[in-house]
Amino acid sequence: MNGKCVRWADANVHISSHALHYGTGVFEGIRCYETPDGPSVFRMGAHLSRLYASADCYRMKIPYTHEEMAAAICETVSRNQFRNCYIRPICFFGSSSLGVHPRKCPVEVAVLVWPWGAYLGEEALERGVRITVSPWQKFHSRMMPTAAKACGQYLNSVLAIQDADERGFHEALLLDAQGKITEGSGENIFLVYGDRLLTNDEHDSILPGITRDCVIEIARNSGLAVEARPLEVDDLLHCDEAFFTGTAAEVAPICELDGQRIGQGKRGPVTTKLQRAYLDAAAGRTATYRKWHCPVKQMEAAAL
Ligand code: PMP
Q1: Of 82, 114, 146, which marks where a domain is finished?
Q2: Is 266 known to be catalytic?
Q3: Catalytic one of 4, 149, 273, 297
Q4: Ligand 1 centroid from CA 210, angstroms
Q5: Into how many domains does the chain fold?
Q6: What is the pLDDT of residues 148-189, one digit of tens each?
Q7: What is the pTM of this model?
């Protein structure tokens, strides 16, 4: 936290922090997986690039370099002796003035790590999730930069997941003002039509996910065609298979939309294959995708 390792119980912020009042923080969600090279941070470079890009959107200058952040992440994982964990770097405007413009507020930086299993539940990975169209619309990128991962922007997701959960669904599907599909409250979406994958892109008010990027590359390398275009709810209702992607959710099949079965209503063969390939890549079992790994030990050795 701000350059020092502190105990969880002592990692506190002041109640006058700008971010607490206005949501002015940016963050990442990263996973560290156990691999043959020991614990390894998956897609570190991509996550840090997105963190700095999110900060730029809000004119926030992160007072550390990419390399310092990467070293801090590895040190935090290593000190906690985790082999598999979730990593949450967060940069936010701290305490100074509570005027809306955070110009005088210091930028505070922390890295949190904790063990976190399957985000949508172990069962979801195998059996799939039941989702619902959210009554909450996804905000348009002219309202807030959808490509940025900023704290306050998540109020939209919070409303959507609270509503979905209350109505007995695992996850919400947010549409835009035109009724087109955007994404889940914390996941991107893919549809399977035969040997073709469809997904939307940054023009459709999504956070362009890093898991999405992995799945696109894995799919193309395994001979599937991938097309990015706007998606209608009808496209989802008529596809062979559908799944969510996200760092926390990994690759999660979607089995129902508002009680209507998607495909066979269970994890399909293409989703199964991509899910397995993704988890193999994340666990460092695929030579082609070692490029996505940053082994904690290697980073520590380089820092010595
Ligand atoms: N959309 C939203 C709104 C998210 O919160 C996330 C999770 N970061 C994603 C998509 C998926 O992004 P990633 O694959 O980079 O985790």
Answers
A1: 114
A2: no
A3: 149
A4: 7
A5: 2
A6: 999 999 999 999 999 999 999 999 999 999 999 999 999 999
A7: 0.97
